Amino acid sequence: MDNYIYLTTDRCVLNDGYLWFVNIAGDMICKTSVKTWLTEVVVRIPDKYRTYESFTYDCAAVYKNRVILFPKFEDWILDYDTDSEKFFAVEMKCPELDYNSMNGNKVKFRNAYVHDDKLFLMPHSCHRIVEYDLNLRTKNEHIGWYEKHFASFNWKDINLFCASLVYDNRMWFLCRETNAIMEFEIDSEKTKLYYVASGKSLFSAFAILDNGLFAIFDYINKKMIYWDVKSGNEDRQPEIDLNDVLAENEYLSYITIFAGKKTVLLPFLGKEIIIIGSGKEGVVSFDYKEKGENEAYISRIRVSNNKTLFISQRGVENLLYDDDNDTWSSVSFKIKNENLPMDFSKYALLNEQEGRSFLKEFIKYVDNNS
What we know:
Elements: E1 3-4, E2 13-15, E3 18-22, E4 28-33, E5 38-44, E6 57-63, E7 66-71, E8 76-81, E9 86-91, E10 109-115, E11 118-123, E12 129-133, E13 138-142, H1 144-149, E14 161-167, E15 170-175, E16 180-185, E17 191-195, E18 203-208, E19 213-218, E20 223-228, E21 240-241, E22 252-258, E23 262-267, E24 272-276, E25 283-287, E26 297-302, E27 307-312, E28 318-322, E29 327-331, E30 334-335, H2 352-368
Parallel strand pairs: 5-30
Antiparallel strand pairs: 1-30, 2-3, 3-4, 4-5, 6-7, 7-8, 8-9, 10-11, 11-12, 12-13, 14-15, 15-16, 16-17, 18-19, 19-20, 20-21, 22-23, 23-24, 24-25, 26-27, 27-28, 28-29
């Protein structure tokens, strides 16, 4: 019997049929088969690289026989060699972030992108874009853009960017409170700031459609804003008011796009998925759960040519969307008992029935191995 576990975190990487990620407790590198959804613990992260008890690292890339992690709160880029089973660490401090203040729980990086033999770490709160050479295992920090675009703002108590993505050999960063998107051209390292909305807005997520439009979610005004990256205009497609379909003060998390035509909003808290179609389709919402706790969806990844996985924070009810059949199904990450770390129970959030099963299997394991 398998025990369900809560291993998922903000970001995972698909490589050779496995999703690679760091568990939510921040002390293990794990991988999950996209065929069976069984999860293996690959290695424990050494204590000397862990200052915090959770949300320490995320998986940036799987490169050849190595797994590279970028820091969220920690001070290291970790490069793990699966052949030698050794960690290589590069110090990664962000002195501009004050972790001693009340508002000091700012995540350094939240996204990453591999370009040629370079890994780019895309910032969330820190004021630097980091280029990590995958061959030399050295880093270069790009910092001039902050002084150019943001030095006049007071970023002391808020995160700098709320989301980032890569499109057309450029990195795009969505500013949370300035109605702006920053462009970073990878080859030339040039940056540009675009103001994509007027009035008071508060952005939380964005994605790009195949017609060159950015879909941006303004969760204060509960509306979708569409911005043309090619012309720089925001009026090519009208804004879509979502007040009628969103509950009061409801916070929606990530936006994703299916087939480049539909915009799908997944709830951070709640049970409804919002789908914005085109033409007569309009805006629709549906309840994807009949019972159980609400899920917070914090990550998405394409797992095949026609399937997208939306990963929940607890890992219990992940959603799998089939493009071809326009259907949704639920999958849970599981782990084999024989691979269960001996002290894993302090990280698991099991219900009563699962807890009894876990305890029974644990006693059986001890009896068979003592």
